[in-house]
C-alpha cells in the first residue's frame, strides 16, 4: 500500500459545467445536450441523469466497473492512464499521459501515433504505484481483472480506477464503454461506423477469391506452437469479421497446440504464421522442412504467409483494420 502525500490523488477535482443555448425565437433559455446513456447497457450502471432545465449538469457521476467497484468518474479527465488500451484511446482522439511498454518499447504498430508519450515497463508485471504517481493521472483504466487483483487498492488511491474484466474480449464493446466513460461517445460511434464500413468492403473483396475457404493462424512462440481460435485478436478478425472458415481443431476451442502429428488435420486453404518475438524461427524452419508440411493444402497452393505480430496480436480497431488490410493484400491478387 502506498500512502498519498499532501493529499495527492485523495481528492478528485470537481468541475461544474453549465451549457446554455439561446432559442432563435425569443429569449428563453433551454438546456442543450445530454449524456448518452450507454453505461447501463455496457457496464451495468445507468448514466447520470441530465436535467432538461437550465440547471447545470452534474460534474461527476458514479458507475460500477466490471468487477463491481463503485467508481466516481471525474467530469473531464485530462491525464488518462489506460495500459493496453492505447489503441481504443487513439480512436477516441485521446493520447494517454503514459503508455504500456515491454521494456522501453510500446505497441510497435502505434509508434507514430504515440510518439512523445512516455512509457511504463510492464515486463515484470504491474508498475509500482510510485512509478505511476510520477505522471499524476486523474483517471486510471485497467484492461483486465488480473491487473485489478494485483494493484487496484493502491492505484485507486492515486486516482479513480475503472477495471474491465477482459477488455480485449470484445474491443467494439470496450470502445463504446470508454467513449461513455470519457465523454467521447460521438467519437466512439464514428469510429465504429468507419470500422463497420471497412469490414463490409474487405468482405466484398475477399468474396471473389476466398468464399467458402478456410484459414488458420499458427503462432510460433518460445513456449511452443499453437493455433489461434476465433475469439480474440487476429482470429476474431479472420473468422468472425471477414467470415473465413475455421479448421476443425479450433471450431469449438479458442486455441490448439500444434505438433507434427496433427499437421494433416490442418485442412486450411490459407495459413498465416506469427513468429512471436522472433523466437520461433528454429521451430518454423523445422516444421516447414517436414514432408508432412509440404502435403498440406495451403502449402501446396503457395498460400502460407508470415504476418506482423505487432498488430496481429493487437487488441483494438486500429490493429484490426491493419489485419484486414493484410488479408486483402495477400489474398486478393
TrEMBL record:
Lineage: superkingdom: Bacteria
Task: Answer yes or no on keyword Signal.
Answer: yes
Q: Which SUPFAM superfamilies match?
A: Helical backbone' metal receptor (SSF53807)
Pfam families named in the record: Peripla_BP_2
Q: Which UniProt keywords apply?
A: Signal, Transport
- Say yes or no: keyword Transferase present: no
Residues covered by the Fe/B12 periplasmic-binding domain: 77-333
Q: Where in the cell is it found?
A: Cell envelope
Family membership noted in the UniProt record: Belongs to the bacterial solute-binding protein 8 family.
Protein's name in the database: ABC transporter substrate-binding protein
Origin organism of this chain? Paenibacillus filicis
Amino acid at each position: 500500500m502506498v500512502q498519498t502525500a499532501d493529499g495527492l490523488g485523495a481528492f478528485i477535482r470537481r468541475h461544474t459545467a453549465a451549457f446554455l443555448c439561446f432559442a432563435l425565437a425569443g429569449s428563453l433559455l433551454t438546456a442543450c445536450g445530454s449524456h448518452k446513456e450507454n453505461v447501463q447497457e455496457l457496464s451495468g450502471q445507468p448514466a447520470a441523469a441530465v436535467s432538461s432545465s437550465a440547471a447545470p449538469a452534474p460534474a461527476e457521476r458514479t458507475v460500477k466497473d466490471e468487477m463491481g467497484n463503485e467508481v466516481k468518474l471525474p467530469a473531464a479527465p485530462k491525464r488518462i492512464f489506460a495500459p493496453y488500451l492505447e489503441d481504443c484511446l487513439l480512436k477516441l482522439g485521446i493520447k494517454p499521459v503514459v503508455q504500456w511498454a515491454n521494456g522501453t518499447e510500446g505497441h510497435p504498430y502505434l509508434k507514430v501515433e504515440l510518439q512523445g508519450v512516455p512509457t511504463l515497463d510492464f515486463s515484470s508485471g504491474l508498475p509500482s504505484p510510485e512509478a505511476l504517481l510520477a505522471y499524476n493521472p486523474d483517471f486510471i483504466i485497467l484492461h483486465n481483472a488480473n491487473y485489478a487483483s494485483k494493484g487496484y487498492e493502491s492505484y485507486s488511491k492515486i486516482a479513480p480506477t475503472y477495471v474491465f474484466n477482459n477488455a480485449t474480449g470484445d474491443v467494439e464493446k470496450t470502445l463504446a464503454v470508454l467513449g461513455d466513460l470519457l465523454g467521447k461517445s460521438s467519437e466512439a460511434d464514428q469510429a465504429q461506423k468507419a470500422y463497420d464500413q471497412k469490414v463490409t468492403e474487405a468482405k466484398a473483396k475477399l468474396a471473389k477469391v476466398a468464399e467458402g475457404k478456410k484459414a488458420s493462424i499458427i503462432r510460433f512462440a518460445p513456449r511452443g506452437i499453437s493455433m489461434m481460435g476465433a475469439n480474440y485478436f487476429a482470429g476474431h478478425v479472420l473468422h468472425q469479421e471477414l467470415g473465413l472458415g475455421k479448421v476443425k481443431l479450433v471450431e469449438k476451442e479458442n486455441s490448439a497446440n500444434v505438433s507434427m502429428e496433427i499437421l494433416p488435420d490442418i485442412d486450411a486453404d490459407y495459413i498465416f504464421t506469427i513468429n512471436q518475438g522472433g523466437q520461433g524461427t528454429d521451430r518454423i524452419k523445422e516444421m516447414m522442412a517436414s514432408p508432412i508440411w509440404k502435403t498440406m493444402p495451403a502449402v501446396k497452393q503457395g498460400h502460407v504467409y508470415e504476418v506482423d505480430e505487432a498488430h496481429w496480436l493487437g487488441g483494438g480497431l486500429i490493429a484490426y483494420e491493419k489485419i484486414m488490410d493484410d488479408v486483402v493484400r495477400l489474398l486478393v491478387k
